[in-house]
């Protein structure tokens, strides 16, 4: 057997061992809704306000550019995941393409990102609950959410799927309703609302009121709003029909991004002046509904944001536990994390939840140093993951065409030109992050973590006597 294919076969078998031990309890409707709801996070409902304040109406361009990059990344990931469904997703692909150190780096960096994100989402959800129930301690709500979703993930995977199915249904319904109301208001059909025309798009400083710098800030804000799309390729390994599920999710990614993200931004900046303080203070969706005089808009959107946060918590605990399980199966983590009971990696679920809860405690105990370090460290991890995805696809596409072309159920468009274009786009985002004072520190801390993980992964690879495959 050639030097090129031997490591890939070993890695494939290792991850397959973990995937066989896991149950296939996710139905196609679960996977479809996870894919559909995965693009709708709390960052879209609330965090997009800062991007609008910086870029003005040109936020539509920012989301279009970052959305194009995400579409290409998802297409590449979908190609590899349809050809080789695995609970380790891009970590497995990176190991097969580049070497064990790359799978180790991408996998543990993503695990770290998800665990910290679980803590952040718990804090956000608890903040909403304390607004509704004044006087109740925030930590108690955090503990409750952690227990509920840790318990959900400790049970059969179908429970996770059911939670995500209904969470996603509510989020999708809210976005569709918002877009429907917005379009009616724009054309002047909504009662008591006059059609705004292009006044908010071209007035108050024009389409790019803060120039190129504002557009760059909006672009950076929009890039990180797309996190969560990767979960569907992790979940596919536990679905009834992994290949078909991934293929369908990837093929519908384009219209989902166009409608939910770009469509929402276009509606918001058309209806509401971009410099309205409510866009940042209340969030762009609440500000838009308030502007249109929709009663109880704030509370309605708070319910939707709460659901988005809880959905993200649930999905991130799931994704972290499966990634850890896959890494252990490939001898890249403590063996205890890979223990599976009843088709569920319960130790990995518990440890991932506990790490998320520790992040919450650090937000209380050490908010100005340790917790800020955590936030800065995860700032650019998703870009690192996307980079590994693109490089892996560049290598594995040629290998698959040579060895098993029938597995290419999903194909990257215009390969290899668009893959290279994606890498150039990611490099451009890294450069823009380095230029901006607010994101430079995140880039440095994420870079430091990536280098440390890569070094540890390389040492482990050398100790195991592994050699990185060469295409």
Keywords, separated by commas or semicolons:
471 residues; mainly alpha; Amino acid/polyamine transporter I; 21 helices; 0% strand; disordered C terminus; transport; amino-acid transport
Q: What is the compact description of this entry?
A:
The chain is mainly α and 471 residues long. 73% of the residues lie in helices and 0% in strands.
Describe this structure in words.
The chain is mainly α. The protein has one domain: Up-down Bundle (Amino acid/polyamine transporter I), CATH 1.20.1740. 54% of the residues are buried.
| Helix and strand element order | HHHHHHHHHHHHHHHHHHHHH
Largest sheet data: none
Name given to the CATH architecture:
Up-down Bundle
**Helical residue percent band:** over 70%
Spatial separation of the terminal alpha carbons:
14 Å
CATH superfamily: Amino acid/polyamine transporter I
- The portion of residues forming beta strands comes to under 5%
- What is the residue-averaged pLDDT? 85
Rg value: 22 Å
Tally of alpha and pi helices: 21
SSE blueprint and pairings:
Elements: H1 6-21, H2 28-37, H3 42-55, H4 59-83, H5 90-97, H6 100-132, H7 138-154, H8 157-186, H9 199-202, H10 211-223, H11 231-235, H12 242-251, H13 253-271, H14 278-281, H15 284-291, H16 297-329, H17 346-365, H18 370-377, H19 381-403, H20 417-435, H21 437-463
